[in-house]
Amino acid sequence: MPEGTFHCSTCETCILSMTQHCYFTNNCIGKQNFKYFYLFMIWVLIGSLFVCALLGQSFLRIFLKDEAFLNLIKDQKKIIVFTFVFCFALLFSVSILFGYYTYWSIDQRKKEFEIKSNKYLKLSQSSRGRVIAGIIFLKKCLLPFFEQERHAEDFSHVI
What we know:
Layout (H helix, E strand, L loop, with lengths): L4 E4 L4 E4 L3 E3 L4 E3 L4 H30 L3 H6 L4 H47 L3 H16 L17
Antiparallel strand pairs: 1-2, 3-4
Helix pairs in contact: 1-3, 3-4
């Protein structure tokens, strides 16, 4: 079993670099699917922000008791308020989770960068070695959606 593998008691499987078991996707989040989970969070943020933007004006008019608007939407008032509050709560909670995972991802990339940069800087202490290490840092830390490297043990289940 590779180093950094964790056992999920919910799925009863071992996951490389497991962060959590997500009940929304009913799947464990690890090294192989972290970028897809990250993109899922981005789309949830965009969707809830869109709904909040659409319903924000209506919610404000209900809150300020605009009589002409209230007469127009007689039965939908509770639906509008509930949907706005739900989407705003979703936006708030997912943005906290998104911020945490962004910080965690950058921290993991920094650790990988330190290990790899020590290897590159030992080869060459010139400015060229530092430039190579900086490019690796930018690729791994700031652009987390590059295709991950595959190793032979990743395909052991295919046989």
